[in-house]
Structures are given as C-alpha cells and as structure tokens.
Amino acid sequence: MKHIFIFVGIAVLIIMTSCNFPWQDDDSPIIPLVISGLGVTITDYDSSTGKAGDFIFVPEEQKVFLEFGAQVSSPDGFKELPTFEYRIDPNANVMAITDGKVTRMVYQPDTQDYEIGAISTQNSNYYIGYDHITAPTVGLGDHLVAGQILGKPGTWSASLGRFEIMINNSKNGLSYCPFVYFDTSLKDEYEQKISRLMADWELFKGNQSIYDEENHIYPGCRYEDMVSY
User: Fold this and answer.
1) What's the maximum distance between 2 C-alpha atoms anywhere in the chain?
2) pLDDT per residue over 98-127, tens digit each?
3) Secondary structure class of 221 (helix, strand, coil)
4) What is the distance in angstroms between the CA of the first residue and the CA of the last residue of the chain?
5) Strand ranges (DSSP E) for the chain?
6) How do beta strands 94-95 and 65-66 pair?
7) How high is the pLDDT of residue 26?
8) pTM attached to this predicted model
9) Phi-psi category of residue 182: left, alpha or beta, with phi > 0 → left and psi -120 to 50 → alpha
C-alpha cells in the first residue's frame, strides 16, 4: 500500500509540473492578452469633411498616423516608436483598448497632458500605456473596460490633437504591435482600417512611398515587437 501512495504522489507531481496554472511564473498564461480596439475611431477618408474618423487630414503634416517602428527625430537623434501615435481631432474621445486597472497617472508639464498606464486584468505581465490625454475621465485604481472613454487627446498643433497607445511586457522589456494580441474576431476589420488609413493618406499627399506597407509585419507595424522605452 505504501508503494501505491508513493506512485500516486509522483504521478500527481508530474501532472502539476507539466501544466500551466495561474500562480505559475510562466510566459504562456492561461488567459492571454486580448486587444479589441485601437483607442480612436477610424473610417475611410471623406473629402467633404477632410476627416477619416477622428483623423483630420492636414496637408502640412508628414503623417497623421505614425506606425509601430516609425522613425522620428528626438533630442538624442533618430528613434523608432514602440507605439501607435495619432494626430487627431482635438475634440475626439480617446478610449481604452483592453480591460485593465489604472496604476499610473502622471501629469506632464512639458506637454500639459497626462500619461495613463493600466495593468491588464487578463495578464498582469502586460502594461498598456496611454499617452497624451487631457480632461481625463479616469483615475488611479479605476478598472477599465475596452472601449471606455479615457478623455481627450493632448495638443499637437492649433488644429490637431495627439494620442499614443503602447503595449509593454514587463517581463521581457518588449513593446508589441497591437495586432499581435488583437481579438481574432475583429483583427481583419481593424487591419483593413489601418491599411486603408495609410493608403488614403498617401493618396491625399500624392506620395505612395510614405509608408513601406510591403515590408510591414502587420498593417501599420514595421516589427512584431521591439525594445520598449
């Protein structure tokens, strides 16, 4: 009988160590991160309004959508953005892209807006950054649901607001293209939205080489992931 108990105990231990449990420190959680929006409203460009959803097509801008991995100038030289960055209607509503809990809310005097950060309630390894928000409607400790209004965009110019989203993994220090974790039932729809937005902007600017779409891993993503800030 003693040998039977030892055998059963070993069998249980093998099963437990071969399975993923919520309390295990594992990179493959039982509940994955699921993103179901991109934080702003995106539609086809309407020449009568000069808008594509929340995006205002202003000729002076090089881009109104800065893709994941976009190269921009900075005080330290050129850098690549681990974000989706938008130039949009200053009166637009900016929204949460997934469920989470607000753990960071910092006022930024240089841009006179807020950076809000939320830990995913699906997978606590992931931190969602929402940068450049004014008139915030949420606070520290608040629980967010996808699509919830966070506030208004920060100021970019006299006619445009500014807003960024970023998906970080705190364990490996990487930021991810939103489409890596997008809801599979919505992914095609939103990939098409981004593809059309880039195509509409290139047509508006009369320059088909603004975005290097052929080399994008996903629409609007030059990489699948990259080192975060």
Assistant:
1) 84
2) 999 999 999 999 999 999 999 999 999 999
3) strand
4) 59
5) 51-52, 55-56, 65-66, 71-74, 77-80, 84-88, 94-95, 100-108, 113-120, 126-134, 143-144, 149-155, 161-169, 174-176, 225-227
6) unpaired
7) 47
8) 0.85
9) beta
